[in-house]
Amino acid sequence: MAKITDVAARAGVSLSTVSRVMNGNPTVDPVLAERVRAAALELGYTANPLARSLVLGRTQTVAVVIPDLGNPTFQAILRGLSRAAADDGYHVLIADSAEQVDEERVLAVATRRRTDGVILCAPRLDQASLDVLLPELAPVVVVNRAAQDSAPVVAADYRTALGELVEHLYGLGHRRVAYLAGVPRSASNAARLAALADARAAHPDLEIAELPSGVDFDSGAAAADAVCASGATAVLAFNDLVAMGLLSALTDRGIRVPADISVAGFDDIPFARYTSPPLTTAAVPAAELGAQAWAAMHALLTGAESVPFVALRPQTILRGSTAAAP
Amino acid sequence: MAKITDVAARAGVSLSTVSRVMNGNPTVDPVLAERVRAAALELGYTANPLARSLVLGRTQTVAVVIPDLGNPTFQAILRGLSRAAADDGYHVLIADSAEQVDEERVLAVATRRRTDGVILCAPRLDQASLDVLLPELAPVVVVNRAAQDSAPVVAADYRTALGELVEHLYGLGHRRVAYLAGVPRSASNAARLAALADARAAHPDLEIAELPSGVDFDSGAAAADAVCASGATAVLAFNDLVAMGLLSALTDRGIRVPADISVAGFDDIPFARYTSPPLTTAAVPAAELGAQAWAAMHALLTGAESVPFVALRPQTILRGSTAAAP
DNA sequence: CTGTTAGCGCCTTCAT
DNA sequence: ATGAAGGCGCTAACAG
Prior knowledge:
With 326 residues, chain A is an alpha/beta fold. Chain A has three domains: 4-56, 434 Repressor (Amino-terminal Domain) (Orthogonal Bundle), CATH 1.10.260.40; 61-156 and 286-313, Response regulator (Rossmann fold, 3-Layer(aba) Sandwich); 158-284, Response regulator (Rossmann fold, 3-Layer(aba) Sandwich). In chain A, 46% of the residues lie in helices and 16% in strands. Chain A is built from 13 helices and twelve strands. Chain A has a six-stranded parallel beta sheet with strand order 2-1-3-4-5-11, with helices on both faces. A four-stranded parallel beta sheet of chain A has the order 7-6-8-9, sandwiched between helices. Chain A has a two-stranded antiparallel ribbon with strand order 10-12. Strand 2 (91-96) of chain A pairs antiparallel with strand 2 (91-96) of chain B, so a sheet runs across the interface. The structure holds a DNA duplex (16 and 16 nucleotides).
């Protein structure tokens, strides 16, 4: 691999001149510049990014910490982020913590050292740990959870979105609703609970039972009996996977959706529209969330003005899985 | 951020000694070593990975080039790869070429310079370009396509897998089968066509019509009319998304699956089991593919013995979307 | 406008 | 066993 001294020798100039030319510094004699460019081309020279990183103090790379690369929402966030970063000439280092919450912190700090900043998706990390972690990570952008002013936040507005879903069900005449809670300690679950509290306050005749569940298909299926026992006429699932699992288990039991019971999901993952019946859900703009997270990071990196808090409003998508209460 | 000289000063030793201690070099007085460790701990010192990378000539990072982060198969490959690499203490840089085949080459070369190697998923890159690209990328591992000895290959055996699917249909009495071809120029499509040729040779009474299609849900839906017109009693879709689109469109037309027509997919994406009817398909072990790709790269990086070609056999999954010919 | 020089932070011979 | 010194490849003052 050709190095800068090789190019300098070939062009008969000093290495500083080569550096200047390669970096577009205009204070170079056009003739020399051309000679340098020719030499660089012949040698297929490109500056070693590592050496540049060391001297410049920036790597043109950011780290994205994600709890689970198998989760469609994080996949979409990563996709949106990666493409937006690429458009700005940045690279992305991924760190999948594989749901190991205790690893998350170490991972974030480790990746931070080889990058210019980190975008943190850590919904299950407790707030106290997060608060001490963030300053250590700066510049850092937090996705989908609060970060008391120590970092810009880009989040979907789960509270409003779930609120709309509740209103939708209430408008259909449902008065007994079950909520399948996902990870109880996650930030987005807290937002959802707030939405339920809002709804209860607004509608005294509305009963919302909170049933435990997980975050995946099987959890939804496993909750079917509890849902039936609760006497609810409508279910708000933690996410689409849970809703789909529930849908499947209910169907197996001969319970008709939405005739007997309405089911709503959350996220609008790609397959939500293809279930039968298609799933009513709140479309979280995950890829856009990723793009916005990048935008926030880019602003941090370039010292540009930036919004400290970006809230993206999920869109309520009404499909066939919800209907009037029986 | 503390640097090695800070630790040296605090411990009252030279920076070489600190370096030795941090790297576990045993030729250091235990007393000094302990003093160094204490100093490092107090200062929260960790060697700057960038500086190490520059001097050591290795970054502990590999690049993964992927054509589309939105594709479930590549997502799974990335997940398996990322976790396997993390287990060996390596980081992963992702490069999503967003299906821009011409960008793929530049991207691969660019990311290669900041990493120790690249794992290349480039199913649509033409073979000639690939052949000149690979030497430039070494060490490099190629996923899901041939690489004439210039790099280790880790691939799913599409040919055998599709062959099994055909046999399955043939065994069910189907004699007129339609194949919904995906991207004609992709490597895996070539493997699939080879499987069809095998089947035709083995069963003279078997007719297989090749119908053009894309690779996504909508392509499958759009192919419904052509499928009906073809008179086929069974369809092999390029992948599960195409199969699901077809399934949906057929259902809309009142055509029953599998009573009127059988449909088989490919890949076994997470939702294939949840369609109605559930999809018969070939389960490509994508995450395992990623893990194997990492293993191959790790071998390359450590100079270990390695297998030049790993073929992973997809498992045929029989579900409800295929049945006896009407 | 160009070349020389001093680092960026670290590892590693080479002496001692 | 330890320290001094050179260099990884490049950029950015500083002279000239």
